[in-house]
């Protein structure tokens, strides 16, 4: 079965094509036979196959046209890997917000598209991009089955004490609640950790740390998400690349009253001008933050220290609901590639018996254990493999095969 995955972001469009052979999923993440990414700002399209890598300038700023040009590289030119679009058996989409109704991979029908559209006010950047991809496939590939895999789904069964905000209850009834995000990656990493450790997932108490430009934690117990740091929107929780994470809400009231902020300027401040970028004044990229620290930049050092402090505090807040900790997983760009962050976090939990092996931490590759042999808590670095997780969930839905991935 050939599965095309479309993973739309606010400023990018990532896509890949997997081929699943036989009646079961492979034990390890396979390499896609075709991979593409679009940077909408630069209008650059990058295509990678098993034999070639190519950069292409998009003909138009129009996103649907850009997606069409991207998909044409599947069947034409040097990057051709298919004779025609009919060779694609299934198309899977990452959809950021599924609300309360969609808690698993779902075949896309008109009512599902309408639900994604209805949730645009809660995900104004991402859900429209998800719909663009769905509609582009409808135009180009006709009636090929399409599946939505929702970023919120893994968190849909969190307990009410985690979900409900301490506001008048009527607002919860109107949909103001904690939804959580990065669920596709958190779910995959928890399952992959159990696989690596050769232990049943339901027997493990796990915290997964998705640390990229966006950051979140998930507490996983009995194989389910019982808590997460993101909430009504992806703004809540940890300090991130350009997002503030959780702050005193009265600050917003103060800015409205005293500095003539409005909804748009508050949105820009909290989502685009804060976090590592805002504190350092240099960059949202942790690599540039670390380079600035080596030059003696004090604000860059403050940004790093704040980032780690808030991360450790959030990890600590999840321990009581888990009733302990068996596994800590680092994933995504910073989590997978920054041993210093992992070391700084690990130092805060030595009281739990958590011990990193310095050599393993500094030389970690994807999907590896970096804790010492006598550590009470296993610490892992896992490639988030979000696109593969999307393909696997869609395959399981269509084939009605619930084997683990």
Chain-wise SSE layout:
Blueprint: E1 2-8, E2 12-19, E3 34-39, E4 44-49, E5 53-57, H1 63-72, E6 90-95, E7 106-107, H2 110-118, H3 126-141, E8 146-150, H4 160-163, H5 169-173, H6 183-197, E9 205-211, E10 215-221, E11 224-228, H7 250-258, H8 263-272, H9 275-280, H10 286-294, H11 298-322, E12 327-331, H12 332-337, H13 339-347, H14 358-362, E13 368-369, E14 378-381, H15 386-399
Parallel strand pairs: 1-6, 6-8, 9-12, 12-14
Antiparallel strand pairs: 1-2, 2-3, 3-4, 4-5, 7-8, 9-10, 10-11, 13-14
Task: Describe this protein with a few key phrases.
Nucleotidyltransferase, domain 5, 405 residues, 38% helix, six-stranded mixed β-sheet, 14 strands, alpha/beta, 15 helices
Give a structural overview.
- By secondary structure, the protein is an alpha/beta fold.
- It has two domains: 2-150, Nucleotidyltransferase, domain 5, CATH 3.30.420; 200-381, 2-Layer Sandwich (Nucleotidyltransferase, domain 5), CATH 3.30.420.
- It is 38% helix and 19% strand.
- The protein has an eight-stranded mixed β-sheet with strand order 5-4-3-2-1-6-8-7, with helices on both faces.
- A hairpin with a 4-residue loop joins strand 3 (34-39) and strand 4.
- The protein is globular.
